[in-house]
Amino acid sequence: MVLPDGTVIKTVVHLNQVIDHPRISIGDFTYFGHLEELEDYAGYLAQFLFPLSGERLVIGKFCQIAHGVRFITSSANHSMRGFSTYPFANFMMNEATTADDMKALFDVADRKGDTVVGNDVWIGTEAVVMPGVTVGDGAIIGARAVVARDVPPYTVIAGNPAKPVKKRFDDQVTGALRDLRWWDWPIETIQANIDAISGADIDTLKRVGDRIDAAPKRDSKLS
Question: InterPro entries from the entry (predicted)?
């Protein structure tokens, strides 16, 4: 983030510009505002997600992620099939350990799957998102919430465990926003309609969406 005088705020970063991880996908303009610079943003946000992990972390466009947020992915889980949950194999590796043995370390029963965050989601300070959770578009997660269940689109949740506090808009507006998907519009269109997006002017956004739908589609073979 750059201030009018040219000062660069190095602790606010667009995540897809600072993360290159085979199991993480992040949409454009999603940012992380931390209180200190980090050397490894992927390692901080999803410290248990490894190249050999079976799950992914997928975050959409225009998300706002506050200081201290963490994503606990499925590879953090311990097997609960036996009497002990202790990961003995993790501490018994040696020169005879094979690649297949390494992959087996990530074969955890009851794997929760991918963690998916939609578009235009605001995640508050020090919130924790647990394995396999899907957060819908436009949701807001309160500070220090522990999110263990899926979050519906355009819903505010808070607490530990996190629970719904309220819907941001009525069902009609929420449905229209999910259909419009303004975050997928060309950036020039978004910039021209920031007031309507920020000001909750759904009628204007619908008109823009109608114009986009009516515009001739370019033939990808000719472009």
Answer: Hexapep, Hexapep_transf_CS, Trans_hexapeptide_repeat, Trimer_LpxA-like_sf
> What are the beta bridge partners of residue 155?
167
Segment 120-139, tens digit of pLDDT: 999 999 999 999 999 999 99
> How many other C-beta atoms are found inside a 10 Å radius of the C-beta of residue 190?
17
Q: Is residue 190 part of a domain?
A: yes
Classify residue 116 as left (phi > 0), alpha (psi -120 to 50) or beta: beta
> At a CB cut-off of 8 Å and minimum separation 6, what does 38 contact?
44
Cα–Cα distance measured from residue 25 to residue 20, given in angstroms and rounded to the nearest whole number: 9
Residues marked as catalytic: 78
**Residues 37, 58: one domain?**
yes
Count of structural domains, the chain:
2
Rounded to 5 degrees, what angle do the CA atoms 153, 120, 54 make?
80
Same domain assignment for residues 176 and 152: no
Judge if 129 and 49 occupy the same domain.
yes
